From TrEMBL:
GO biological process: cell differentiation; signal transduction
Record's protein name: non-specific serine/threonine protein kinase
Keywords recorded for this protein, A-Z: ATP-binding, Kinase, Nucleotide-binding, Phosphoprotein, Serine/threonine-protein kinase, Transferase
Family per similarity comment: Belongs to the protein kinase superfamily. CMGC Ser/Thr protein kinase family. GSK-3 subfamily.
One Pfam short name: Pkinase
Record bears the keyword Nucleotide-binding: yes
GO cellular component, one term: cytoplasm
InterPro entries assigned: GSK-3 (IPR050591), Kinase-like_dom_sf (IPR011009), Prot_kinase_dom (IPR000719), Protein_kinase_ATP_BS (IPR017441), Ser/Thr_kinase_AS (IPR008271), STKc_GSK3 (IPR039192)
PANTHER family (UniProt xref): GLYCOGEN SYNTHASE KINASE-3 ALPHA, PROTEIN KINASE SHAGGY-RELATED
Length: 370
């Protein structure tokens, strides 16, 4: 779903709740957490599977925002809202406010007022593809680094799995190269003791354990999707363009080869007895002919069948592939200025390393900041 806005003059006045209420523990909507705002009325043009998104500017703050309107089932809390209220990170689209509306038929709608970003990564990539050119390697590196930073925060601090990482849900500003994750409509806090549905995530980006129908999957499914996104930015087209659920597995096997018994066991032990045709892997260096060793190695670390062998978000951040962003001596001044403006080397102990022991976090910091 893409968004557009047509302003038709009139001002809308709304009493809205703050996206991050002062009393973080309470999920009740409290009057003391509400403010009044106004914005020019906009006509909705884009429709998605769950709702509509339009854009406007808040009069009181001057902030450009995107308003996502979704049908709200009165019987349940909205999971997207509950998750977004908790998330505060530079690489997550910020929930500024929210409000409810009832239409003449009595249907309740939830409106999420979000920080605005000019483009999706999907649109950005199309820009290069239509020009028959490639996205510059350094631009890919800026985006994938921010995605890894975002997932490290989501997975370790917030314990949230996004479950729908794809270029359409990664919003970018091509002027600054900032990237922010949006659409938490499929996101969930995964608990090891509770099963989760496997029919989530958009087809091309689905981790193999989801295709195998696993219900005990982990946040590592987001890393697979991120590997697919990175591959797509390099290739200019999806790496595994499956035409159906099962064809998706065929596309993966065509490149990575048939998974071993142990890999299948790690994805879903129920498939152990299943016979798969034996296909040999194609080395990634052949698929990505013009990429250097670090890039190939990093892609293969993200695109592993076994979710426990697949890099986690922090391992991704530590990959030599990103050393170009960390280099201090002789770094290209343009790269250095993007790194500085986006605060890419800024880490908050509390948000980003709180799953590590003191020793581990010191070692990681040395790697990340050297
Ligand atoms: N904060 C934002 N700033 C700018 N554009 C946004 C923003 N949030 C969403 N969009 C645009 O709206 C599209 C749809 O948003 P989102 O994915 O949250 O809605 P959805 O109903 O879940 O859509 P879909 O059916 O594509 O899953 C995004 O792909 C993006 O193009």
């Amino acid at each position: 779903m893409e968004i557009q806005a047509i302003t038709n003059g009139g001002l809308v006045h709304k009493q809205v709740f703050l996206g991050h209420p002062s009393n973080a523990s309470g999920s009740q909507d409290r009057e003391e957490d509400s403010v009044s705002i106004s914005y020019p009325a906009t006509e909705v043009v884009g429709h998605g599977s769950f709702g509509v998104v339009f854009t406007t500017q808040i009069n009181e703050t001057g902030h450009r925002v995107a308003i996502k309107k979704v049908l709200q089932d009165r019987r349940f809390k909205n999971r997207e809202l509950e998750i977004m209220k908790q998330l505060i990170h530079p690489q997550v689209v910020d929930l500024k406010y929210y409000f409810y509306e009832t239409d003449p038929q009595g249907e309740v709608y939830l409106n999420l007022i979000l920080e605005y970003m000019p483009q999706s990564l999907y649109q950005r990539l199309r820009h290069f593809v239509t020009q028959r050119s490639n996205m510059p390697r350094i631009e890919i590196k800026f985006y994938i680094y921010q995605l890894a930073k975002c997932l490290n925060y989501l997975h370790t601090h917030a314990k949230v799995c996004h479950r729908d990482i794809k270029p359409q849900n990664l919003l970018v500003d091509p002027q600054t190269f900032a990237l922010k994750l949006c659409d938490f409509g499929s996101a969930k806090q995964l608990k090891p003791s509770e099963p989760n549905v496997s029919y989530i995530c958009s087809r091309y980006y689905r981790a193999p354990e989801l295709i195998f129908g696993a219900t005990n999957y982990t946040v590592q499914i987001d890393i697979w999707s991120s590997g697919c996104v990175m591959a797509e930015l390099i290739l200019g087209q999806p790496m595994f363009p499956g035409e159906s659920g099962i064809d998706q597995l065929v596309e993966i096997i065509k490149i990575l080869g048939t998974p071993t018994k142990q890999e299948i066991c790690s994805m879903n032990p129920n498939y152990m007895e299943h016979k798969f045709p034996q296909i040999r892997p194609i080395p990634l260096a052949k698929v990505f002919k013009r990429e250097d060793d670090e890039t190939i190695q990093f892609l293969s670390d993200m695109l592993r069948y076994d979710p426990t062998e697949r890099f986690n978000a922090l391992q991704c951040l530590c990959s030599p592939y990103f050393d170009e962003l960390r280099q201090t001596d002789g770094q290209d001044p343009e790269v250095a200025s993007v790194v500085q403006n986006l605060n890419l080397m800024d880490f908050s102990d509390q948000l980003e390393f709180d799953s590590l022991t003191l020793e581990e976090s010191q070692a990681v910091k040395q790697r990340l900041l050297s």
